[in-house]
Write a structure and sequence with these properties.
The complex is a heterodimer of chains A (288) and B (166). With 288 residues, chain A is α+β, with helices and mostly antiparallel strands. Helices cover 34% and strands 26% of the residues of chain A. In chain A, strand 2, helix 2 (37-42) and strand 3 form a beta-alpha-beta unit. In chain A, helix 9 (227-233) packs antiparallel against helix 10 and helix 10 (240-252) packs antiparallel against helix 11 (264-285). The longest helix of chain A is centred in the last third of the chain and has 22 residues, at 264-285. Chain A is globular. Chain B has a five-stranded mixed beta sheet, with helices on both faces. The radius of gyration of chain B is 16 Å and the shape is elongated. The chains are: A alpha+beta (288), B alpha+beta (166). The interface between A and B is medium-sized, with 29 and 31 residues.
Chain lengths: 288, 166
C-alpha cells in the first residue's frame, strides 16, 4: 500500500510549522508520530499534498515541571511518558494509560499531542486529559492560546483546533498527595481501541471522598467527562450505593457506536464495568 | 513532488539516496538498499514483521516514511550477526530453542527482542510477552519464541539457561 504523492517539509520550530500550515492551507497536514495519519494515507482515505513533519522541532519534546504543573511537549512519545521519572512521581495514571495504548513499536513513535489532537474517540489520552482537567497550549496563525481539554472535543475528529493550529504542549496539575487513580481499558487484543475504558482520580479524607473526576473512552462520539458520576461519589464513603449510583450515571451518558467491538448496550455495560474496576483500584491507592 | 536527498547509517554503513517523500522505510530498505530481511506482512502496523531498530527504538518500518529516517541510525536483521558470521545471542537462541517455524516473523521478532534486551536485560516471562506484543507469529504459539529470548538473556548475562518446566 503506497500513499498518494506529497511534498515533505521538516520545520525546525513550531512558528515555522504554523507559518507553513498557513501558507499551504487545507492541502497540508501536520505529521506527529504518524501512526494514525500514515495508515489512512495508505488507504487513500487521506491524501494531503503537503506533510509538515513536527519531528524535527526540539521545543515540542520533553517533560518539565513548573511549580505544581507538569508541562508535556506535544511531540513527547508514549514511550517517553512510560519511562519518565516525573510522570511516575506526579502523574502515574498517564504511564498506566500509555502502557495500554497500541504496542511497544507504536509507543516509541506515537505522541501525546497526536493522541489528543486527532479527535479520534478511540484514543485513550483524551478522556484521561478531561479527567485530569488538562490545558492544551495551541499555536496558530493568530498566535498562542489555551484550550481546556474539557472544551476541546466537539465531535468525531472535530476539535476546537482552528485551521492552521497545532497543539504545542499539555499542562496538567500533579495529582494531589494521596490521590487514588486508575485507568481501566477493555480491549479485544493488544493494539485494539477500547471496547470501553474509564479513567478515575479520587481523593479521600476521614473515610469520605472529597474530590473525584471520571473520564470515559470510546463510548460516544467524543471522550466523555462523567460529572454526574463523579458527583455521586463526592461526599460519600465510597460505599456500594454511591458506586452503583456513579456507575448508573456514567452509563446514562454513553452513546457508543455499534461496531465489531459490540452492540451499544454491551459497550455501555462494559463502560460501567470498567468504571467499577477503576474505582475499586483507585480506592486501594487513595490515602487519607 | 521533488525527490528528497537522505543519508542514514544502516547496519554501520553510511548510505545516501534520493527518495520520493511517499516512500515507506520498508520499501526503501528492501527495494533501494536491497535489505530484504525486514519483511512486509500486514502493511498496517499490526504484525511487526517489518520491525527495524531506528535511533534506539523498535519501529514498524511500514509506518515510517524514509524521509523521516533522514540522519537516522538503523539496524536491520542483516546487522545482527558479527562480521565473521557468528550469530548474535538472540539468533543463537532462536536456533537452539526452535523459535521459528515458517520464519516469516523472525527478523521482526529478533530485531524487536534486541531492543527489549538492551532496555531490560533480565526480563520476566510476562515482560517478554508484553515486549513482543507488537509482533505476530502464526506458527509457534509464542512458547519457543519466549524461550529463545530467555536463552539469549541468559547468554548475555553470562548465566546458564534453564528451560522452565511446562
Amino acid at each position: 500500500m503506497i500513499p498518494g504523492r506529497f511534498d515533505y517539509h521538516r520545520p525546525n520550530s513550531a512558528q515555522e510549522a504554523v507559518a507553513l500550515l498557513a501558507k499551504l492551507g487545507d492541502e497540508a497536514r501536520p505529521l506527529a508520530g504518524g501512526h494514525s495519519l500514515i495508515p489512512v494515507m495508505k488507504t487513500r482515505l487521506s491524501a494531503p499534498e503537503h506533510l509538515i513533519d513536527l519531528g524535527g522541532i526540539a521545543d515540542l519534546k520533553g517533560i518539565r515541571v513548573d511549580g505544581n504543573t507538569v508541562i508535556i511537549g506535544a511531540m513527547t512519545t508514549q514511550h517517553s511518558l512510560l519511562t519518565s521519572p516525573v510522570i511516575a512521581d506526579k502523574l502515574p495514571i498517564i504511564a498506566e494509560t500509555s502502557a495500554v495504548i497500541a504496542d511497544p513499536q507504536i509507543r516509541y513513535l506515537g505522541t501525546l499531542g497526536g493522541n489528543v489532537a486527532n479527535g479520534d474517540p478511540g484514543n485513550d489520552m483524551p478522556a484521561l486529559m478531561m479527567c485530569l482537567d488538562a490545558t492544551f497550549t495551541v499555536l496558530g496563525p493568530k498566535g498562542e492560546r489555551s484550550v481546556k481539554a474539557r472544551d476541546f472535543y466537539l465531535g468525531t475528529y472535530v476539535t476546537a483546533l482552528e485551521p492552521g493550529e497545532i497543539v504545542t504542549s499539555i499542562q496538567i496539575a500533579a495529582l494531589s498527595a494521596g490521590a487514588g487513580y486508575a485507568y481501566e481499558k477493555l480491549k479485544r487484543k493488544v493494539g485494539d481501541y477500547a471496547t470501553a475504558a474509564a479513567a478515575v482520580v479520587i481523593s479521600m479524607s476521614g473515610g469520605k471522598c472529597t474530590a473525584a473526576a471520571i473520564g470515559l473512552t470510546n463510548v460516544a462520539e467524543t471522550p466523555l467527562l462523567a460529572s454526574d458520576a463523579s458527583n455521586a461519589l463526592i461526599g460519600s464513603t465510597m460505599d456500594k450505593a454511591a458506586i452503583d449510583k456513579a456507575v448508573a450515571a456514567a452509563e446514562a451518558i454513553t452513546n457508543p457506536a455499534h461496531d465489531a467491538r459490540g452492540t451499544p448496550q454491551y459497550r455501555t455495560k462494559m463502560a460501567g464495568v470498567m468504571l467499577r474496576r477503576a474505582i475499586a483500584r483507585a480506592m486501594t491507592r487513595a490515602r487519607g | 513532488m521533488a525527490k528528497t536527498h537522505v543519508t542514514m547509517t544502516i547496519n554501520g554503513q553510511e548510505v545516501e539516496a534520493l527518495v520520493e517523500p511517499r516512500t515507506l522505510l520498508i520499501h526503501f530498505l528492501r527495494e533501494q538498499m536491497l535489505l530484504t530481511g525486514p519483511h512486509i506482512g500486514c502493511e498496517t502496523s499490526h504484525c511487526g514483521a517489518c520491525t527495524v531498530d531506528m535511533n534506539e527504538m523498535s519501529v514498524k518500518s511500514c509506518t515510517v516514511f524514509a524521509v523521516q529516517a533522514n540522519g537516522a541510525n538503523i539496524t536491520t536483521i542483516e546487522g545482527m550477526a558479527a562480521a565473521d558470521g557468528t550469530l548474535s545471542a538472540l539468533q543463537e537462541g532462536f536456533r537452539m530453542m526452535h523459535g521459528l517455524q515458517c520464519g516469516y516473523c523472525t527478523p521482526g521478532m529478533i530485531t524487536r527482542a534486541h531492543r527489549l534486551l538492551i532496555e531490560n536485560p533480565n526480563p520476566s516471562e510476562d515482560e517478554i510477552r508484553m515486549g513482543i506484543a507488537g509482533n505476530l507469529c502464526r506458527c509457534t504459539g509464542y512458547q519457543n519464541i519466549v524461550k529463545s529470548i530467555q536463552y539469549a538473556a541468559a547468554k548475555i548475562n553470562g548465566v546458564p539457561f534453564h528451560e522452565a518446566a511446562e
